[in-house]
Design goal:
The complex is a heterodimer of chains A (273) and B (320). Chain A has 273 residues and is α/β, with parallel strands linked by helices. Helices cover 41% and strands 11% of the residues of chain A. The chains are: A alpha/beta (273), B alpha/beta (320).
Chain lengths: 273, 320
């Protein structure tokens, strides 16, 4: 696929994901739409432009892995897996309902395509590191991608894993930081500042790229493996906007787990076109 | 009597059996890997490291990462044995054990080294007497506490072949091999070490051989004590506990652990709900004072004489 066509396809998928995720959150009156929307372009790029997988064979050993460390952003993850063909759209209607496979945080035993259970922050990067080490150990060529929030990086377990990944020179390991600069209550820098985040990862032995996390073309370029591969793990700091795409949600911490009323839902649907 | 001192004739450190077995298994199965937190020596994995340098992952002093990496290795088709001092493996990384191993259900084997009060004088920060209570509610983790070298080797072999999370809790205190005919390791089944009809002593790990000595002492007084080696704490052999309650009418539990929420707690939960009989729980009531392992065992009555005393007490509490 030509790059322009690919970018258009990813944008279409991302639009569908935003509309569908917002509907899920509206119907359930539960969810984390702000973080869903900051992450959706990244996740759509991975599933529809970068990763190798077969939804009919979710356990295929050579599949690329995506680990959703910010497990609360299930609106983004569940719509991506659905659009990728792992399960029918009907399942999305059960989001957060009693006995649903679509729990508030993902469970690999409920849903095909979910690589590990996340929810408590700071768990995804160590697990993803283990997957990448297994790949390196066995000479497999699969790639491992993990998406963390930015506030999540306040958890120390991430830095244990970051140090280990840097020392192991894991060239097929990519971390994307959803850098929307807002955590649950307020800004990351007002809470426990992360900057300079790029320098931190460089110091831990990583390659670092800082991009616009809503620029699909830039995401495709940054996430694609360069010819000859890499000799270090890659950290992509994706600058994003919490609530991206809906005027009244953008850059508002209150939409971390805010849910729309009927009027807000209608406005959002008009904007998401 | 005090607990046996190290290097006593016929007493063995179960870590040697663990190390020997994991090396043998790794020879035949390339999926087996070890994950440690700077704990190669204390896990006795020096030999493993020499033979399989690429299959030993030392994450350094970083237990949360260590357990998460274990889950990831399982996702990548490896069979990881994550080995570290029990206190840090289960305490520092408890949320990883809960979410990444138990809840996610990954095929990871957690091996707790130097459990209980094995670190003696180093104190409660280094003791692991809370691990039973912490891990028991994570009921899809099979929790095994081998009583001797033979059982350690069998438990490690079983864990490697079993698909699912396992916690194997080892000591560094030398123990003798139990004398039981036709032994077969059966997870989830209590091992009948000695028949008896007046009282049942349910023990695990380092306490089992002391319970056997107590039974010999009791026999001289005409008391017939049944000894069960409850090597699996989860899932618990409830049938064996029910049989002990109905057939002997009194129970003593003995564990190198906190009595709250551990083996004794589990036995008491089962009997009180089903067949209430006197249950004397032996172990530690909380953080312990400074002292060697031998002193601590003696101080808390975890000796043959102390166990016999509790057995008499349990019998004395029987109704009618």
């Amino acid at each position: 696929m030509l790059k322009n066509d690919l970018v258009d396809t990813i944008r279409e998928k991302a639009l569908w994901m935003r509309r569908r995720a917002f509907t899920m959150v509206h119907d359930a009156q539960l969810g984390h739409p702000g973080g869903d929307f900051s992450a959706i372009d990244i996740i759509a790029t991975l599933y529809f432009g970068v990763m190798r997988y077969d939804p009919k064979k979710p356990d295929m050993p050579e599949r690329d892995r995506f680990i959703m460390s910010k497990g609360h952003a299930t609106g983004a993850l569940y719509t991506a897996l659905c659009a990728a063909g792992y399960y029918p759209e009907d399942w999305l209607k059960t989001y957060m309902q009693p006995q649903s496979k679509l729990n508030g945080h993902p469970n690999r035993n409920y849903l095909p395509g979910v690589e590990t259970n996340t929810g408590p922050l700071g768990h995804g990067l160590p697990v993803a590191l283990g997957i990448a080490i297994a790949g390196q150990m066995t000479g497999s060529d699969y790639r491992t991608f993990v998406l963390t929030g930015d506030g999540e990086l306040q958890e120390g377990s991430n830095w244990e894993a970051a140090m280990s990944a840097g020392n192991r020179k894991l060239g097929k390991f990519t971390l994307i930081v959803d850098r929307n600069r807002l955590q649950q209550g307020m800004g990351t820098e007002e809470t426990n500042g992360l900057d300079p985040l790029d320098d931190k990862f460089r110091a831990f032995g990583w390659d670092v790229e800082v991009i616009d996390g809503h620029d699909v073309g830039a995401l495709v370029s940054a996430l694609s493996e360069p010819p000859g591969g890499r000799s270090k793990p890659l950290c992509i700091i994706a600058n994003t906007i919490k609530g991206k795409g809906v005027s009244f949600m953008e850059n508002k911490a209150s939409w971390h787990h805010g849910v729309p009323n009927a009027e807000q839902y209608d406005i959002a649907m008009e904007e998401l076109v | 009597m005090a607990a046996p001192a190290a290097k006593q004739e016929g007493f063995y450190d179960c870590r040697d059996a663990w190390a020997r077995t994991i090396e043998e298994l790794a020879e035949n199965d390339p999926r087996i890997v070890a994950v440690v937190n700077d704990s190669v020596g204390s896990s006795k994995l020096g030999g493993f490291q020499k033979k399989f340098p690429d299959r030993l992952i030392n994450v350094g002093i970083a237990e949360q990462n260590m357990v998460g990496v274990g889950a990831g290795l399982a996702n990548g088709g490896r069979i990881p044995f994550v080995s570290a001092a029990s206190c840090f493996l289960t305490g520092r990384a408890l949320e990883q054990v809960k979410a990444d191993i138990a809840y996610a259900g990954f095929n990871v084997k957690l091996v707790g080294q130097s459990s209980g009060v094995a670190y003696g004088e180093l104190g409660p920060t280094h003791h692991s007497i809370e691990d039973f209570a912490w891990l028991r509610p994570l009921s899809n983790i099979t929790m095994v506490v081998p009583a001797d070298s033979w059982e350690t080797a069998e438990a490690v072999k079983w864990a490697a072949a079993h698909e699912g999370p396992v916690y194997i809790r080892l000591s560094r205190m030398p123990v003798p091999d139990l004398s039981v005919e036709n032994r077969k390791f059966q997870p989830g089944k209590a091992e009948l070490v000695r028949k008896g009809s007046d009282v049942t002593i349910i023990a695990c790990g380092t306490m089992v051989h002391l319970a056997v000595q107590a039974a010999v002492e009791l026999e001289a007084e005409g008391i017939s004590a049944r000894i069960l080696n409850m090597a699996t704490i989860t899932p618990l052999d409830e049938a064996a506990i029910s049989a002990a309650a109905s057939e002997t009418g009194a129970i003593v539990t003995v564990e190198e652990a906190n009595i709250h929420g551990g083996l004794g707690g589990a036995v008491a939960e089962h009997t009180s709900a089903n067949l209430p009989v006197p249950v004397e729980r032996m172990g530690f009531p909380g953080f312990v004072p400074t002292g060697s392992v031998e002193w601590l065992f003696d101080h808390f009555g975890l000796t043959a004489a102390g166990i016999a005393r509790s057995a008499r007490k349990a019998i004395g509490r029987k109704r009618g």
